[in-house]
Structures are given as C-alpha cells and as structure tokens.
Write a structure and sequence with these properties.
heterodimer, A: mainly alpha, 11 helices, about 0% strand, B: mainly alpha, about 70% helix
C-alpha cells in the first residue's frame, strides 16, 4: 500500500468536493439514461398505485388511510432508496478489480473508500435532482399524492434521505468488496445486488409500509438497520412518524449510518490486503 | 437440424468449461437468485396478510398467475437469452463475425452466451409454484389443464422473447437502447397481478401491445373463471407463436440495416 501524504483538512475537503463534482459531470454525459430512469420510476409507481388501490379496496381494515398509503408507496418508487449508487459502486469496484484499474485508484492521494463514497454521493445527488424530484412532481399531479403535512415533516424527510445515503452506500460498498475475494463481478455482485433489492423492498419498507406487515415481521424489521433506509424518510413524510419521534428516528438512522460506515471500514482494511492485480 | 443440435452441444460444452472457472461464485449467484425470487413470493403472501380475497382471487389462484409468469419469463431468459446481448454485438462490431458464418446469427448468439443458469433456477421456483397451486385448485380445473398449461408456458416464453427481440432491434436505429429495454422489461411485473385492477388503457397495453397479461393472467382466468375469458384464453397460446414469427421478421429487416463499426 502506498503511504498517503498528510494533507490539511481544507485540502482534503476540496478534493472531496472535486471528486463529487467530477462524478456529477460524468453522470450528466448520459442524459438519455435519466430520461428512461424517470420513465421507469413512473412505470413502477403506476404499478404500485393500482396494486395498493386494489389491496386497500379489498381489505376490511387497514392501519393507514388511503391517501397516506398511496403517497407512501409512490414516494417509495420516486426516491428509489434501494438503488442509489448500485450501478455506480458495483461497476466501479468490480470492473476496477477485473481490469486492474483499481490500482490507479489506490495510488491516488485520497482514501479509496472515501473516493468511492464521494463519487457515489455525486451520482446520488444527480439522481435525486434529475430523476427523483421530477418523478415526485409528476406523482403529485398524476397520482395526487399528499404534500408533507407539516414543515417539520418536510425537513425531517430531507434530512433522512441524506441519512439513508450512508446506509445504502455502505451496503453497496460491502457487496462491492466481495469482488476482492471472488474476483468475479457479474455473477456474485449482481446476484447480491438482486438480493439486496429484494430484502430492502420488504424489510426497508420500500414497496410495503412496515406498519402493514404481520407483527412478528415488524418486530424483526424494527431491530434491523434496513428500516432506516426507506421506512424512516417515507413514514416521516406521510405523517406516520410525528413530533419528537421524527428526531428520535433520525438520530437512530444516523447512529446506524455511522455504525455501518465503521464496519465497512474494518472490512475494507482487511480486503485491501487481498488485492491481486490481474494482467496490466 | 442435426447440424444445429451438434453445434449447440459444442457451444454448451465450451460455455460450461468457461463457467466452471468460477465455481464458488456460481453457487453464490444461484442462491442469490433463489432468495430474490423467494422475496417476491413473500410479497404475495404479505398482500394476503391484509386481504382475504384480492379482486376475487384467492392466494392459490394468484400463485398460479405468478408461477406461470415466472416460469415463462425465466425460461426465455435462460434458454433464449439473446435479445439483451444483441446491442453489445452491434456496438462492438462483432456482428460481422456472426454474419459471415453459416449458422443463423441468432442461434450463434444463443450458443456463445450459453444457458443462463440463474434464470433456470427461477424457472424451478416458478414450476414449484404452479404445482403447489394446482394441488389446491385441482377440483376447480378442467381435465385439459394438463395440455393447456405446458402449451401456455411455451407460448409465454415466446411472448417474452419476441417482445424483447423486437425492442432489441431498435439498437440498429439508435445507439443505446439497453436502458430503454430494461425499463420496458419492468412492465412485465404488471403481468403478475390480475389486469382488472388497472385502468382500461393499461389493460389494453398489456393485452395487445406488450401482451404480458397473456402469459399468466388470461390463461389462469380462463381455467378458473372460464366464460368471459374464453376468447383471451384461447388466443393466449397462439399469441406466442404469432409474436415469435413477427419478431423474426423484424429481426431480418433490421439486420439488413446493420453497418459495421469498421474497427
């Protein structure tokens, strides 16, 4: 491993911002992708809208009002919590290892994990602005979803989407690190990515509000970190979580965020010793 | 015919060898795709934790729709996993290589890629779902279900393949169609639920334009609720073969437009 030169905090922050900006610029080169992403977001929204309308109409009693339910599930598709950085991190790490390009990243005057997180943050920022927000605005008109019931809910939602970023990208980074052991990207990494989305859809509450799960599953979901990735921001937005509970939930979310970042840090420190550069 | 069978066997042996290089990762992939499909099934049961009947459909009836959908979709994705690969052949200029060889190019793409095993493991889950549903529903089903369902699975597979192939042919006109293909591929998920929950334009789309509803919903509705679904139920087995022919025609026209990248 190369020794990292000591740099001042100021310089380090400048570098981070530089990397984020570069990721944003890189993302902007694929404008057509954003267009299809909005289209995809609207399609899945349409599906969950009709699905949950039918479920609501067939249910005898439900713990949520119809408006809140529809707002929750449509918003869950607009801000696709399970996906940020998925493409980005997996391709970056996996392809870097396959091609040996990871070496170039390791000799940069910036920590590898920090580099990946910064780049992902840029991609996430861009996706939020160019895909999630337009999809959200369209959902307001097409599906008549609710606006946040209070300014508190709106602010809490904003903060907790940011908090979700650290959780989701830590999990993506962890999956990406698998490539250091398996040396195979497509099979394992995409396979685990698929499992991740499947798990998050249910345990994070992306496609089903956690309050509608059977009690035993709610109890499991309550102790896992996944709920902070989608349920927390969504439930704050629709007013399922209110008042003081908003801030308690956000605190809990950030605690998990820090915990997961530290955990991935430890695993990364182990993984980097395993590196074998192929070809070159 | 014998020539093609022999050739496919050779291709199969080659892809198998290449794949056995990564045995552990292959096992992980297999487990992953089973877990992923299991989660979809879990979602179906979670719906029924909130409702007793879904638009007049019981859990087992919905399971039959889901099973048909999953089986047909992933049969196409494993045995006929061709459309997703076309754009990379076109962009890399590798289609030249296929065009100058005697076997038909689509066959060569299928052979070079091999059977996608992850998808095949999902087929097994789909078949298990169909069988589970059939055991519970057996008294409600007519005797010819045994002939109708296998035919429907084949037709469903061809519907899935043909829609993908037609979309993939756009790659001869536009540069990057992969993300569009994936997005339109998602509409496939609408087919897992009774189309009666959708508005009329969407129902029309899923019946006649991207006929995913013909893969699971209409056949199941025809078997279980008969009467009003007879027309669609009888049309569904033909739809796959009709679209298959159409997609091959589109492919033939499109491939004539191909201009090599010249590199």
């Amino acid at each position: 491993m190369t020794a990292k030169p000591m740099t001042g905090i100021r310089e380090s922050v400048d570098r981070q911002i530089g990397v984020i900006a570069a990721a944003v610029k890189q993302g902007l080169a694929y404008r057509f992708e954003f267009f299809t992403a909005i289209l995809g977001s609207l399609l899945t929204m349409t599906l969950v809208y009709f699905l949950w309308t039918a479920i609501y109409n067939n249910a005898t009693s439900m713990a949520m009002s119809y408006q809140a339910l529809i707002t929750y599930v449509c918003l869950g598709q607009a801000f696709s919590f399970a996906r940020p950085g998925q493409r980005y991190i997996f391709i970056r790490i996996g392809f870097g290892i396959r091609s040996g390009n990871v070496l170039l990243d390791l000799v940069r005057p910036m920590d590898y994990q920090l580099l990946i997180y910064c780049e992902t943050f840029g991609a996430y920022l861009l996706e939020t602005l160019l895909v999630s927000l337009p999809a959200y605005v369209l959902a307001l008109f097409l599906f008549r979803i609710n606006l946040p019931p209070s300014p508190e809910a709106a602010i809490g939602f904003g903060i907790s989407i940011l908090g979700a970023f650290f959780l989701v990208s830590s999990i993506d980074f962890l999956i990406g690190l698998m490539a250091f052991w398996t040396m195979d990207i497509w099979g394992v990494i995409w396979g685990l990515g698929y499992v991740k989305i499947a798990v998050l859809d249910i345990l994070a509450g992306t496609i089903i509000p956690l309050t509608l799960l059977p009690d035993w599953l709610q109890a499991i979901a309550a102790i896992l970190p996944f709920r902070s990735m989608a349920y927390t921001p969504l439930a704050i937005y629709v007013g399922e979580i209110t008042g003081r509970a908003i801030w308690m939930n956000i605190l809990n979310q950030f605690a998990w965020g820090i915990g997961l970042v530290l955990l991935t840090r430890l695993i990364w420190l182990k993984a980097r010793h395993r590196i074998e550069i192929q070809g070159g | 015919m014998l020539y093609y069978a022999d050739l496919y066997l050779t291709y199969f042996r080659l892809t198998w060898k290449a794949r056995s290089q990564y045995r552990v990762s292959f096992a992980i992939t297999l487990v992953c795709s089973i877990v992923g499909t299991g989660a979809q099934l879990a979602f179906l049961t979670l719906i029924f934790a909130n409702v007793r009947q879904f638009e007049g459909w019981s859990f087992d009836e919905m399971l039959l729709i889901w099973g048909l959908m999953v089986t047909a979709t992933h049969l196409a994705n494993s045995l006929l996993d061709i459309p997703h690969r076309i754009s990379s052949y076109v962009q890399g200029g590798n289609l030249d290589r296929l065009l100058v060889r005697p076997p038909t190019p689509l066959f060569q793409i299928a052979g070079e890629g091999g059977i996608t095993l992850q998808a095949l493991s999902r087929v097994m889950i789909g078949v298990a779902a169909i069988l589970t549903a059939l055991v519970t529903l057996q008294d409600k089903l007519p005797w010819w279900t045994v002939f109708y369902l296998p035919l429907m699975v084949i037709s469903g597979m061809l519907i899935m393949f043909s829609v993908q192939l037609i979309l993939a042919c756009l790659t001869f006109w536009f540069v990057n169609t992969f993300s569009l293909m994936q997005t339109i591929g998602w509409i496939n998920q609408f087919g897992q639920y009774p189309v009666t929950i959708l508005t009329l334009p969407l129902r029309f789309l899923l019946t006649w334009v991207l006929p995913y509803a013909m893969m699971g919903f209409y056949p199941a509705a025809f078997l279980l609720h008969g009467g009003e679904y007879r027309l669609y139920g009888l049309l569904a087995p033909l739809m796959g073969f009709f679209l298959f022919g159409l997609s091959l025609l589109v492919w033939r026209v499109s491939v004539r437009r191909y201009q090599s990248t010249g590199s």
